[in-house]
Amino acid sequence: MKKQLKVYMADDHTLFRKAMVNLLRGFEDVAEVKDAENGKELLTLMKYQAPDVAIVDLQMPVMDGVETCENILSKYPDVKIIILTMHDSERYILHMMEMGVHAFLLKNTEPEELEEAIHAVIEKDFYHNHLVASVLRKNVKDRRAGQRPVFSAAELTEREKEIVILVCQELTIKEIGQKLSLSENTVRNHRVNIMEKVGVNNMVGLVKYAYDSGLVK
């Protein structure tokens, strides 16, 4: 990755936040790091210059992670959002995936995974880790157990299903094109058409659809 990234973070625990700032400054390709004590302060920072990535604690005073992300997504749609949380709350994660948040990490995540997540949300628009996969699998299981509707992938062509599966494997547009012998523009057009067909407007929504429809087990 050649781009020099601006990363902002919001967390109300001072020691944790300052340690994170020092960690982020040591990551390759991260050129600028700013921090805030809560969501309101983060949004104030963003008025002057929006970052490439915002790392947001889920539970904060003044303005919590959910409200903060709602504001970022509506005002700064190009900013990639990584949620940090102490708990793998299925309800919150599903809700925020539907909002359009790009990645979820537990606070005990290893530094290497945080760096991987930053690169993934920039390059692929989402980070598909074990936390997200486990929440999505449980959601599908609960749907079936409760006899709630599970979406069908029948409306997609076989080629479109292939592309969705490869997206869930975190391949880039270029890598999908190489694997399927398609141009990058063709893959990009397929992806837009797929998202329109299934009624989602971001890559995280597409991954959620893949689980709901049974394309990904």
Automatic annotation (TrEMBL):
Ranges of residues in domain HTH luxR-type: 149-214
Q: Which GO terms describe its molecular function?
A: DNA binding
UniProt domain Response regulatory: residue ranges: 6-122
Q: Which Pfam families match?
A: GerE (PF00196), Response_reg (PF00072)
Q: Which InterPro entries match?
A: CheY-like_superfamily, NreC/VraR/RcsB-like_REC, Sig_transdc_resp-reg_C-effctor, Sig_transdc_resp-reg_receiver, Tscrpt_reg_LuxR_C, WalR-like
Modification sites for 4-aspartylphosphate? 57
Q: PROSITE patterns per the record?
A: HTH_LUXR_2, RESPONSE_REGULATORY
Q: Keywords in UniProt for this one?
A: DNA-binding, Phosphoprotein
Which GO biological-process labels does this protein carry?
Answer: phosphorelay signal transduction system; regulation of DNA-templated transcription
Instruction: Look up the domain of life of the source.
Output: Bacteria
Work out whether the entry's keyword set contains Zinc.
Answer: no
Q: What SUPFAM superfamilies does UniProt report for this protein, alphabetically?
A: C-terminal effector domain of the bipartite response regulators, CheY-like
What is the name of this protein? Response regulator transcription factor
Please report the organism this UniProt entry assigns to the protein: Chryseosolibacter histidini
